[in-house]
Amino acid sequence: TVREDKEVRAIKKNKKGEEVVADYIADDDFSTYLERKRILSMKWKFECACSICTSDHATDDAMRRKLKRLHDEIPYYNRKLEMKSAINAALEKCKILEDCDYLVTYLPMAYLELYETIAGAKQNTGIMGLRPLPIFEQDEQYREKALEMTKKFKLANKKEAYNKTMKNVTRYGCFRDL
Questions:
Q1: Are 124 and 130 a contacting pair, CB within 8 Å?
Q2: What gap in Å lies between CA 154 and CA 46, rounded to an integer?
């Protein structure tokens, strides 16, 4: 028999008696309560009763739908070279995630996505002769936040993708996959 070990890490200090939860569907982007319930039932054969799954579904689902919309809009606006809209969507996504401690593991990649969007806008501004935006001066701070949080949280499942992305950012100044 093959023994498989798993490591569980807390991303924040827990108080005595505080509930510790595990994200069984971390690869799923911002699913609503009913979508998560269906996935957990089909794949893991249980009904979750954690504080997130038993909280106010309407408020949580509205936030998750908004995050999903923003998540989809960012590459759309980037492809259409609507850079200000892409940056605004990426900023809003980061702000929502900053305020939501149970989705904080998405934040490093959101910061990196914002950094990349700003870097792409900088490139396109020069090419298209558009005016630079004030946020161009803050691009490195989002790259550093992403790196800092990835190290702090030791996000193993996202670290390989992050390292590959950071190599591309370092080499080319922005993501290559857009």
A1: yes
A2: 28
Report how far Cα 30 is from the mean position of its chain's Cα atoms.
Answer: 10
Q: Tell me the average pLDDT across 155-163.
A: 56
Q: Give me the DSSP letters along 96-153.
A: HHHT-GGGGGGHHHHHHHHHHHHHHHHHHHHHHTPPPPGGGGGHHHHHHHHHHHHHHH
Residue 98 in tokens: 């900053």
Q: Has residue 62 got a pLDDT over 50?
A: yes
Model pTM?
Answer: 0.75
Residue 93 contacts residue 141 (beta carbons within 8 Å): no
Alpha carbon of 144 to those of 84, 105, 139, 176: distances in Å? 22, 16, 9, 19
Q: What is the 3-state secondary structure (H, E, C) of 113-129?
A: HHHHHHHHHHHHHHHHC
Q: Which of 41-50, 60-69, 169-178 has the highest mean pLDDT?
A: 60-69
Q: How far apart are CA 138 and CA 159, in angstroms?
A: 23
Task: State the DSSP code for 43.
Answer: I
DSSP H helical ranges for 33-82: 33-39, 57-79
